[in-house]
Write a structure and sequence with these properties.
Distance between the termini: 68 Å
Number of helices: 2
Number of domains: 1
Radius of gyration: 27 Å
Oligomer: single chain
Strand content: 25-35%
Largest sheet: 3 strands, antiparallel
Helix content: 25-40%
């Protein structure tokens, strides 16, 4: 396999991590959109609960219209850590134009026709995070609108 710039390889890995984070953010927004109608109003759930009025009979009930998003615990994830482990053969050091570039060969050795599959061990750790402040404020406002 031809030699590649190590910088290009590292940039590609960096870009992959950024793209993975963008995917988790899009997933969070998609999840949030499930609880709102196209016109922006909250999807509601109608519940009948025992009446809390002081003069209510024991079996009196009240109807509550509850925004569904207030009934689901919010969750968000982000990438906490990524570990990439791979082997490269060091190649030439290009020092043209005051820019030093290390060339590497990411091809393996041995196997059929002297080469094996390129391999890398990738470990990505996701971590749950607190929901965004804006979500908490919207949720708080919706909860207060029920009472």
């Amino acid at each position: 396999m031809a030699q590649q710039n190590l910088d290009d390889l590292l940039q590609a890995i960096h870009d992959a991590v950024i793209e993975a984070q963008i995917i988790t953010e899009k997933q969070h927004i998609h999840q949030l959109q499930k609880y709102f109608n196209e016109d922006g109003t909250a999807q509601m759930l109608t519940l009948r609960v025992p009446s809390m009025k002081p003069d209510a009979a024991e079996d009196d009930t009240e109807t509550l219209h509850v925004p569904m998003i207030t009934l689901v615990p919010p969750s968000a994830i982000k990438i906490k850590q990524m570990k990439v482990d791979f082997k490269v053969a060091l190649g030439s050091l290009d020092t043209t134009n005051d820019c030093k570039t290390l060339r590497v060969d990411i091809g393996g050795s041995g196997g059929l026709f002297g080469k094996t599959q390129n391999t890398a061990n990738v470990e990505i750790i996701f971590v749950g995070t607190d929901p965004p402040e804006s979500f908490l404020r919207i949720n708080d406002h919706l909860v207060k609108s029920i009472l």
